[in-house]
Design goal:
This protein has helices at residues 2-10, 17-46, 53-82, 104-125, 131-161, 165-173, 175-188, 194-218, 226-261, 272-294, 302-326. It is an all-alpha fold. The chain is globular.
Length: 330
């Protein structure tokens, strides 16, 4: 594949690189599920009728617990992937204080993650019938969602722009102004606009799919009643069905958007071995999500929940590899 062959040109002594890439993509999948799962739970906690408040609050709690578990898996995957790194990370900069300007670009994302976790954990911990405490919890949920959105967008910006030496030097010299200019440049770059939508929809779809697995896992330890679990499983199945479709549509938009703005000599023809899983696995995942969404008792579709999550993760890996293989210089 063109993508891997180009990487090996720069690092021929890294036989562990494919394993590291796979683990990093899996970590990104669970990280997106953790960040966007909080948004999925918050939407259920805010947008509901007063008669269904109890079910929606329990649903929001369990979706948030599933998101927290996804963040833990992402952290473990990143720790495992660090053993496959072909070279040490360029952090901290030699001769620079930890909080100095040269290290600012490395501290933005961890700082945002700490802020997100702070509000997220408060949101999970505060469960009370008091009106004021509920408003406080919803306020923390909004702050956590905003931090999660910033994490996704700034993480994408850093991935796209930090390899350019001029931008890295500008971030060292004047990080505040450079970040604003990066955001403005990204907003005006038409070919990259579908990328945040693709990542967020994928994260929401992953959160909904993994939430089904979490409900099955916690069924005996957190027995909220048969009616609640039927409600929650149907809601998650329908959400996953819609969100997988939305993520696929955003991915197709991104693929052809890059094709329209990339010179022919800088792109490669789509590899059929990657197109098939990238396009076919999401469709199969939608079919799997359709069965519990229409079933009388969706809790019986346990194997379906695990299979749909594995297929979605595999589809995400195939789609990213297809993008990087088709546009190695984009």
């Amino acid at each position: 594949m063109q993508f891997l062959s180009q990487i090996w040109q720069f690092d021929p002594y890294a036989p562990s690189l494919p394993a590291a890439l796979i683990i990093y993509v899996c970590a990104l999948f669970f990280l997106l599920a953790g960040l966007c799962g909080q948004m999925l739970g918050m939407s259920a906690d805010i947008l509901h009728s007063p008669k269904q408040r109890t079910f929606h609050e329990k649903y929001a709690l369990q979706v948030s617990e599933s998101a927290l578990c996804s963040l833990g898996i992402a952290a473990l995957a990143l720790a495992a992937a660090s053993g496959f790194l072909p070279r040490p990370l360029p952090f901290p900069a030699d001769g620079a204080p930890l909080l100095g300007a040269p290290n600012f670009k490395f501290l933005v994302l961890p700082g945002l993650l700490v802020i997100f976790l702070f509000f997220f954990l408060i949101q999970i911990a505060v469960r009370s019938r008091s009106r004021w405490l509920r408003l406080f919890r919803l306020g923390c949920a909004v702050c956590a969602s905003f931090a999660a959105l910033l994490l996704v967008i700034l993480g994408l910006l850093f991935f796209l722009y930090l390899p350019e030496p001029e931008i890295a030097l500008l971030l060292d010299a004047d990080p505040g102004q450079t970040l604003v200019e990066m955001l403005c440049s990204f907003a005006l770059t038409a070919e990259y606009r579908p990328a945040p939508l693709y990542l967020i929809c994928t994260g929401l779809a992953a959160a909904a799919s993994l939430g089904r697995v979490w409900l099955i896992w916690r069924r005996n330890k957190a027995d909220f009643g048969r009616d609640y679990y039927l409600f929650a499983m149907r809601r998650l199945s329908r959400a996953a069905l819609f969100l997988v479709f939305a993520a696929s549509a955003a991915g197709i938009w991104l693929f052809f958007s890059l094709a329209a703005c990339t010179a022919p000599e800088l792109r490669q023809p789509a590899d059929p071995l990657l197109v098939l899983p990238a396009a076919g696995l999401p469709l199969l995942c939608c079919i799997l999500q359709l069965f519990p969404a229409l079933a009388e008792n969706p809790m019986r579709h346990k194997a379906n929940a695990f299979a749909a999550s594995i297929l979605l993760l595999t589809a995400f890996c195939a789609q990213l590899l297809l993008l990087f293989n088709s546009y190695p210089a984009a």
